[in-house]
Hints:
Radius of gyration: 23 Å
Helix content: 25-40%
Bound molecules: ligand LLP
Amino acid sequence: MELIANQYQVQNLSLLDIAQQFGTPLYVYDAAKIVQKIEELKQAFAQVNLKIKFAGKALTNVSVLKVMRQNGVELDVVSPQELQLGLLAGYEGSQITFTPSGVSFDEIETAVAAGSMVNLDNLSVLEKFGQRYGSSVPCMIRIKPNVAAGGNAKIMTAHDSSKFGIDVRQKAEILQLVEQYQINVVGLHQHTGSDIKTPEAFVQVANIIFEFAHSFKGLKYIDLGGGFKVSYKKDDVVTNMAEVGKELSNAFRAFCQSYGAQLQLWFEPGKFLVSECGYFLTTANVVKHNPTRTFVGINSGLNHLIRPMMYDGAYHEIVNISNPNTTEEETYDVVGYICETDTFGTDRTLKKVREGDVLAFKNAGAYGFTMSSQYNSRFRPAEVLVYQGKAHLIRQRETMEDILRNQVLTEFL
Length: 413
Ligand code: LLP
């Protein structure tokens, strides 16, 4: 969003007009920004055979998935339901990779039946896969490299005590199962974590996987997951894509050479592709002056955007888009309406907030709507996609019917 002609705009549309047209709380996504991020990633890896698989869990609206598909981005999913959404967006099953964590074997079978590639993340599933499919179905194996990297403890997935993947130290067991059942392993996968800043962490992990890969014949794909760090606040350290692209591409090309085959390099970014495209628009219900603090209470809460309450240090910049031209600023705690501690931001200096003003949260595209809930029996927000200069409603705001859906109103009480 940019401040143009005294109003915040997305693709020449005023965000405030969008808020007025569709109401708040509202998620707004800018398709042009998504395309720009896809291009940036492709550019950074122009020297290798690259495949991008959007980590659907970050933002699963089918219209957004369609934007990905139109731009040559495939899909990574973690549940049969996300897989269904991908198919609805027009993906072939074969363009969708299934990377679940500790699911029942029927979910694996569902993905295989849809023609999707599966990343197997534990030895017992690998064995079941071998027993069920032998060499007839290609698969990939998720490896845990035992590297701790990522923005906070909850989103690190590759350290020694993490539940994800098969530990690199269990290589002998993997190879034994692959041999016993002639399992057709066509790729290795790993995902280190989210919000990884340093290029070194990516290269360190990649080298562990490359080294590991030499024990497997006939690999076609190396999937290095997601985790690129985006900017949440001014002067934030972010993944330097050009640098990571250069270093990883060099390492990958050297690996392909020593492996003796040209493999395809996969990534599964979530935040990198959709964090910045999203704005969460809310309205200030109350401005409350206490002797020590001033609160802005908005018409939303952790039920709609849980990241600030869920992750240590999670930060979303907040902008008062209703009052951009004033010179008056105040420092506020921006809080939600949920009946427990529900803080979006403390000590935020904003353009003076009046009750009724619209506050926009930045970086709301990734893990915003998808982590929302009906806690406190509140409706989940609507979603709008700005596509080719027009704002389209892509999800209706919930109603009381949605709250009651599936409740069984019996007569025994
Ligand atoms: N691949 C796998 C296997 C993953 O588990 C994830 C994210 C990704 C790719 C994409 O990671 P990204 O590029 O978005 O960092 N809800 C948290 C983030 C959790 C990420 C879980 N896995 C947050 O809002 O910070």
